[in-house]
Design brief:
The structure is a homotetramer of 359-residue chains. Chain A is of the alpha+beta class and 359 residues long. The first copy, chain A, has one domain: 4-Layer Sandwich (Chorismate synthase, AroC fold), CATH 3.60.150. Chain A is built from seven helices and 18 strands. In chain A, the strands form six sheets. Chain A has a five-stranded antiparallel beta sheet, with helices on one face. In chain A, strands 9-8-10-16-11 form a five-stranded antiparallel beta sheet. In chain A, helix 3 packs across helix 7. Chain A starts with a strand and ends in an 8-residue tail after the last helix. The mean pLDDT of chain A is 92. Strand 11 of chain A pairs antiparallel with strand 11 of chain B.
Chain lengths: 359, 359, 359, 359
């Protein structure tokens, strides 16, 4: 049917549709004793928000998140933390003319085939609106990882269309709407987006990310590997088509003598592994890259069918991002945080569980 | 600690180490009523086996699989199917000289950091020996998918080092040890491998795969998406570093008007989506690609440390594949089969669950 | 930490504290296509509500449930159904004087020891307020079971203190606040409760329940047995101390020749098994009984400690039921419905999964 | 279909049929670093074994358990521990005459209805033979609980037919085949069993159990409560019909002023709660009681049907226990150990996860 929970020891469950009254999530398994405020969550939500620049959808949601459970006197209690946001700027009428149309490249076709019923308003459950709750929950996971282990997670735009971008100065990624550390290339990106928007077309993007200070030993072989669960997490984000861990697909053409990260004087000499060996963290930076496909909702007409199977020409006039990947950086960070915290909690279980002094 | 179960409705649990007495698995949730024989499983095991050609490890396991439960009078009963194989050609002495060495690029470092104890014989639990059981269980899933839905899964070598390979004639992939349908290029591959083996180095590989005849509607949004669970499955295989679904990373540079698969006369005009939209199958071929890193065990010396933290030079003399990816095709097929069957069973639950005639 | 999800294919997750702003739940895995209205849910909530009679807590919640996701144009979509209720009559000041006291027989002691932090207002997360959401979700499961399979579930009061009650006319259980089919004994129960309330003390209760028309074949051996999951469900309800399936503890003194339910002319001659053999339904009525302990919150003083470990005398003045078991019947029904629907969905998976015609 | 895994962080999966070649289990999530030997497991298996006295089935299995994975040089590695036992004394011919008969009170009917196929030999998967593996895995959990926390678990016979037994001297329970601490009443029990066996009939039994030294704070509200998971565990054992926690069903007739366990001078004055409040351990003894139904396999004829629906008279001549509950004590101990260790591991996760020093 559907499966809306992610994680094992830290379990995140989201609910809500793009144009429903409310979206929300439940974060279960979060330890007691950590102070949290709605403002900390809103800080992350603003990073993800639409309407931040002219390059993203102009839907403007307040994302006024409420913490409705699991926190008492400002501190987590160990009980499920429910977060809810009321949708305020859902313009369902934008979609009424395409209620029975199957938009190419969207979940319309597969949802219709699977469920026989479809909330067509803005993609319903398949909308990226759902990722708001990932970012909200991720804000709590990021705080815990930072406080408990000094872990910091950063995601940045590393490719848009055929433009490649380096990490640059990652402290600058929030200074532009492009989540790039190559801040001097922002004008180039602005120009690129300007032309793209005029063309009516869209492009894909790649987001790279890293987590620093992850302790060695996190990850559960062989079906709860850290890299495998990161791949699951990334591929669960809307519009993703590929995931690299460390050197990723580039490792295919590498030789083993180059790829294997040698250790000299106790220091790894490279990090092609992306900080993960055999599914377990090594203490090096965890690095990954995620491919996002181009937006499918375009004002350029596309051939498709309607629910009656008749040919239709689909033209989308709603508010859409010409490159959905631009805003994906905070979502990638959030999912990385949820995966890492989940593994951190599992690893903590081991620490006190095998210090035997057997005779 | 460890997490050795994969799947939700069809649950696969494996156990055993490379040089332990026995490896095995339990496949739980398999429907009753399907005839199976050990020979059908052995057929798939032989496709994966080492020692098939001079290009793979020379360890020769009989892989004499026994079905010890869940089958009565040759037919599945609906109860857990346990499969076991006794290890017969485990040469543990090969490894004794490196018992305390940390081999670069292997799980030695991370296992040691995590567990504080390590079965160093042939990689212990982190060895690809474990994938034998995936192939064994996958043989049953493949049969069920074929019989119940006509689904067929094929994986082939699409890149080795910097050599790109097309699908070619996929009916020929078992005719060479390279799992390639470009059968006329086998001499070129032989030559490549010959030089590689002489160099003492290794290379990575990419395996592509497709499943045909998967019905539309399989997959569970939003955290049990078909593509996300395929990514988890692929990234759980030893030595994987990347996963593409459909156009994968190539979709980053595509324009939306190209990527979205338009429908004319009821037919999709392309399949950049890889048969999955919003996490649910569309009825098109499911396509994916997996990156395998180069083998790390080389006779070329590498700098590393031992468990005392002292610098050591590691030279591996055991029996290893110069390109582990070559043999990965049957493993990719098996994992694809386990994921698809799991989703098939979940989807079947829906079929009889929502044919309401409500007034 | 905490684990707030119940069920495998139908997953129910609840959140919220007794005196928090909002309580709610997410019901994931519900099939698409079933019409539901808030009014249907409210009907069940009123059956459970406090303040219905003078024998229950006088807290009066409107329980104005909102369906905030998973339903489109009045019909389920197959996506997570989130239900939320705002708490309106939470009188937290009632509890301020006992903020640091450990009330005997409550979760105060164990929550304090586990979490080190405690929402003392009305029991916080450990309050029976949480069961409101079970009843809400159970209303949907009951409807599905009825429509899809004709299954009906009824729970009634079978013991209160030392008063034993027969099933009587179960169509009458909603005619009194006692959930009894022995409607002519209501005056006796009123008298009993009157004396009890005057005494300041409390008593326990037993609730019996049955489900009729459950098809044979539901249940998953050996760790997803129908009876075992019913026991888990019942024992998860606040204040429960025991569960009987079928003849339950009475079967200890039975002889095997009596207990085993013989079949004559195709009909079971008795139902000591409670409709479940080896964890799987037989098609007979599913029957069970649940023991509820007496309310621990009394105006009669009790010796205890505070969080500083100092001796205190606890006197509870809040609004409490002198017999919590009285209102438990709808909760037992709801949990039974959630378990049965979960198993129904799992069973449906099998129906289409093993109709092989193998040659 | 079937669900053969128990536990969340410590996951136990069993496989095998009564008269299959092999039974076994996989214990996943067990911490590294604990020495174990087959002999320690065999010690517990002998306590459960049939053929120990004339009061139990005369099937004599060697139960020569092999540890085939997860242990290296005698010490657990943190990887899945697989245990297997080859069946040696399975006399399948005993059952051939009843291959198509539905034995009343057994899983024959429900398995047949569910699966349409049935391993009729000795009950197949529904046989109590499966509990051998629970006891084997339980032996490891008991050792861990003892070493890590000083926890000790003891189960004893507290009722057989209508004979009630006190705990007596629990250090003596292994001195007779009756698992009773009332060692002076063994002659009475012998006499009772002698008459019972002559009658050809059977009786039920109740097993009581306690765990001492369980730390406060174990258990996960609200759907992973310690008592609820104990109830699930107990009800998953063959032939169980009821579970009491603490005062259990007796609490129905108790008054609240008696039931609630007051604290004077820091000491609980009673333990009606059975060591669990709101699903979390209090540090008091965990106490429970389990009801076992009488054996259904009797030489006394019973009316039933065969798989063709025709009336048959069933007479069972195989080797059966006249009171299955007698041997259940070690199984109850094992399941209690698995539940407690699972919760212990979950609790350990919390210990290092919330010691924040937030400014």
């Amino acid at each position: 049917m559907s499966h809306n929970t992610f994680g094992k020891n830290l379990r995140f469950t989201s609910f809500g549709e793009s144009h429903g009254s409310t979206i929300g999530c439940v974060l279960d398994g979060f330890p007691p004793g950590m102070p949290i405020t709605p403002e900390e969550i809103k800080h992350e939500l603003r990073r993800r928000a639409t309407g931040r620049s002219k390059h993203t959808s102009q839907r403007r949601e307040q994302d006024d998140v409420q913490i409705v459970s699991g926190v008492f006197e400002g501190v987590t209690t160990g009980h499920p933390i429910a977060l809810i946001i009321e949708n305020t700027d859902a313009k369902s009428k934008d979609y009424s003319n395409i209620a029975t149309q199957i938009r190419p490249g969207h979940g319309d076709y597969s949802y219709w085939k699977k469920y026989g019923i479809r909330d067509y308003r803005g993609g319903g459950r398949s909308s990226a609106r759902e990722t708001t709750m990932r970012v909200a929950a991720g804000a709590l996971a990021k705080k815990w990882l930072k406080k408990q282990h000094g872990i910091e997670i950063t995601a940045w735009l590393s490719q848009i269309g055929d433009i490649q971008l380096q990490a640059g100065d990652l402290s600058k990624i929030d200074d532009s709407p492009f989540f790039t550390g190559e801040i001097n290339r922002v004008p180039e990106l602005e120009e690129f987006m300007h032309k793209l928007r005029k063309s009516g077309d869209s492009v894909g993007a790649a987001i790279s990310a890293k987590a620093v200070n992850v302790p060695a030993g996190w990850g559960e072989p062989v079906y709860g590997k850290l890299d495998a669960e990161l791949a699951l997490a990334m591929m669960s984000i809307n519009a993703t088509k590929g995931v690299d861990i460390g050197a990723g697909f580039d490792s295919v053409a590498q030789s083993g003598s180059v790829h294997r990260d040698e250790i000299i004087d106790g220091e790894f000499q490279s990090n092609h592994a992306g900080g993960i060996l055999a599914g377990i963290s090594t203490g090096q930076d965890i690095t990954l890259k995620v491919a996002f496909k181009p937006t499918s909702s375009l004002r350029l007409p596309a051939q498709s069918i309607n629910e009656a199977g008749e040919p239709v020409t689909v033209v989308t006039k709603g508010r859409h991002d010409p490159c959905v990947g631009i805003r994906a950086a905070p979502i990638v960070e959030a999912m990385m945080a949820l995966v890492l915290m989940d593994h951190g909690l599992r690893h903590h279980a081991q620490i006190n569980s095998n210090q035997h002094t057997f005779e």
